[in-house]
Write a structure and sequence with these properties.
361 residues, alpha+beta, Methane Monooxygenase Hydroxylase, Chain G, domain 1, Alpha-Beta Plaits, Double Stranded RNA Binding Domain, 3 domains, eight-stranded mixed beta sheet, three-stranded antiparallel beta sheet, 9 helices, 46% helix, 20% strand, flat
């Protein structure tokens, strides 16, 4: 670990020298200043770590070499205080060394779709949407519906929404996959438990500069949105359907009143999907489409099961269960997300050659 830290410290010193020599090249100065700001937390934490380690080494030497019992007791107390402090600083330093996902701080676009289970899957899709709304509220994030396709009985065939908040992607990216529900549907007269599935895809919001989509690559169709009837029926064609010709991805938006607003929303969703495909290609995943993120919706591909009769929610990736299903559906997801985040951090640490836990720095 410390070898990697020393390399960062060396680069930090080089940047400081470069800033003194950069002259009037303001663009270069801005680049160096940004890089220095990225490295500074590591450099500061490493200095704190070394300081505590030095104090701990001195206390240990005093304890082992001193014959005066009073001094030995003082050294023992200091050792007892400094050892957990050093462990804490080591964990924090390792966390700073984990390769960062550049998308972590971004807003997210969440897509929820009913998969197997018919109307019951649509109702559970609505339950999951409310769960994520509650979770967003707990973090003071904003939720904005981009597109929805209701089933007519309070469920959704599909709902796409944006969650705006700092770090939203870093927390919600672990929600991608198949969510399975086991419960007695309200339409079931004999009380039999049914199993249904819903797919969730979490995409980082993408700026125009992140991915360019040539106009020649898209086909735009406009049509009248399906309103509620009466005075709400749209007389003009405001709904927009965009087809990305190279990939065949289709995005439709009709919830806004103007064609322009619907087009902007559809392009935002398309851009996020295309960016996700590029990310998956870079990570050398087997599938290069959004389908690889959510699977096919088959029951066997689940990442999490919501069992109503047992009031149990189980995340199958980390084999952890909560027996308070109402609380989870009310947005208490951090227990699962914290553990998934820790596992992800451990794997990324391993990819750098740093052990998740070390006895010595």
């Amino acid at each position: 670990m410390l070898e990697k830290v020393e390399g960062i410290e060396k680069r930090y010193e080089e940047i400081n020298r470069g800033l003194n020599e950069v002259g009037e090249d303001y663009q270069r100065a801005a680049e160096l200043a940004k890089e220095r700001a990225d490295l500074e937390p590591v450099v500061n934490k490493a200095a704190e770590y070394r300081q505590v380690q030095q104090r701990l080494d001195q206390a240990r030497q005093l304890y082992s070499g001193e014959t005066d019992e009073e001094f030995r007791e003082l050294a023992a107390v200091e050792i007892e205080e400094l050892e957990p402090e050093l462990d804490r600083l080591e964990a924090e330093l390792k966390g700073l060394l984990v390769p960062k996902d550049p998308r972590d701080e971004r807003n997210v676009i969440v897509e929820i779709r009913a998969a197997t289970g018919g109307d019951e899957a649509g109702l559970f899709a609505a339950d999951l949407y409310r769960m994520y709304v509650r979770y967003a509220e707990r973090h003071s994030w904003k939720v904005e519906v981009l597109s929805e396709n209701e089933t007519g009985i309070g469920g959704y065939k599909e709902i796409i929404f944006m969650i705006k908040g700092k770090g939203a992607y870093s927390r919600l990216k672990f929600e991608s996959g198949v969510h399975r529900v086991q419960r007695v549907p309200v339409t079931e007269s004999q009380g039999r438990i049914h199993t249904s599935t819903v797919t969730v895809a979490v995409l980082a919001e993408v700026e125009d500069v992140d991915i360019e989509i040539p106009e020649t690559d898209i086909r735009t169709d406009v049509y009248r949105s399906a309103g509620a009837g009466g005075q709400n029926v749209q007389k003009n064609s405001t709904a927009v359907r965009i087809t990305h010709l190279p990939t065949g991805i289709v995005v439709a938006c009709q919830d806004e009143r103007s064609q322009l607003q619907n087009r902007l929303r559809a392009m935002s969703i398309l851009r996020a999907r295309l960016y996700e495909i590029e990310e998956q290609k870079r990570q050398q995943e087997l599938e290069a489409t959004r389908r690889s993120q959510v699977g096919t919706g088959e029951r066997a591909e689940k990442i999490r099961t919501y069992n109503y009769p047992q009031s149990r929610v189980t995340d199958h990736r980390i084999n952890i269960s909560s027996y308070n299903l109402p609380a989870v559906l009310d947005g208490e997801l951090d227990g699962f997300i914290d553990e998934l985040s820790l596992r992800d951090e451990t794997e990324r640490l391993a990819s750098t050659g740093i052990e998740a836990r070390e006895d010595e720095g």
